[in-house]
């Protein structure tokens, strides 16, 4: 399962790396039930799908968190996520899609966004992705597994602003990470700057997703 590659560690499936983070989100859920963590970070009632041919990031950190929000019919909900953060990232051939169902007279409507094709990748600084599911081939350089989230100093730091994450919970970090063949479902993405080269956005009736 594990082999050394160019001074880093390769996992065939990035989901393997996320197993400890899933355990961390379970612990965060218990803490929330005990009133130990703030509950002010919220997301929309829809997840979205993202694909990319390649993501190259420096200053990587990952930790468990809990996103809360509301469903499209106004019911409060919560989603355990693994927050993947990068100080800097470049993304080749990115596709992002979200489907809104049950619109009167139209049915489902899909928003599809594509950028970073050709030789001009998407570029981001202080990028945070709240991931619910992720598959990719991944290589990490100088990875540290099992640090406390608050002590992960290779990445951009925890989000703050009432984020529902235990600062003493499980985290991992690396000097850099390279992901290829990325397919993921996420609840939120934030960045200090996000440069979308060659942006193309379209709205289509029906269900049209990146994968």
From TrEMBL:
Species assigned in the record: Streptomyces carpinensis
The keyword Signal is assigned to this record: yes
Record keywords, A-Z: Signal
Pfam family, any one: DUF6230
Protein name: DUF6230 family protein
Alphabetized InterPro entries for the sequence: DUF6230
Presence of keyword Signal: yes
UniProt signal peptide: 1-38
């Amino acid at each position: 399962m594990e082999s050394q590659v160019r001074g880093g560690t390769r996992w065939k499936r990035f989901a393997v790396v996320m197993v400890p983070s899933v355990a961390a989100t379970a612990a965060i859920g218990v803490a929330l039930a005990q009133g130990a963590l703030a509950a002010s970070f919220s997301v929309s009632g829809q997840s979205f799908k993202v694909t990319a041919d390649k993501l190259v990031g420096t200053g990587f950190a990952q930790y468990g968190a809990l996103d809360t929000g509301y469903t499209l019919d106004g019911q409060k909900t919560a989603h355990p996520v693994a927050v993947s953060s990068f100080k800097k990232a470049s993304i080749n051939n990115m596709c992002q899609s979200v489907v809104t169902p049950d619109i009167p007279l139209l049915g489902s409507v899909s928003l599809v966004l594509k950028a970073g094709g050709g030789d001009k990748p998407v570029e981001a600084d202080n990028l945070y992705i709240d991931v619910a599911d992720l598959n990719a081939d991944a290589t990490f350089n100088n990875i540290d597994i099992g640090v406390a989230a608050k002590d992960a100093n290779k990445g951009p730091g925890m989000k703050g602003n009432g984020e529902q994450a235990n600062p003493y919970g499980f985290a991992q970090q690396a000097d850099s990470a390279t992901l290829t063949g990325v397919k993921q479902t996420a609840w939120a993405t934030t960045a200090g700057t996000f440069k979308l080269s060659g942006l193309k956005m379209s709205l289509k009736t029906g269900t049209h997703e990146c994968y």
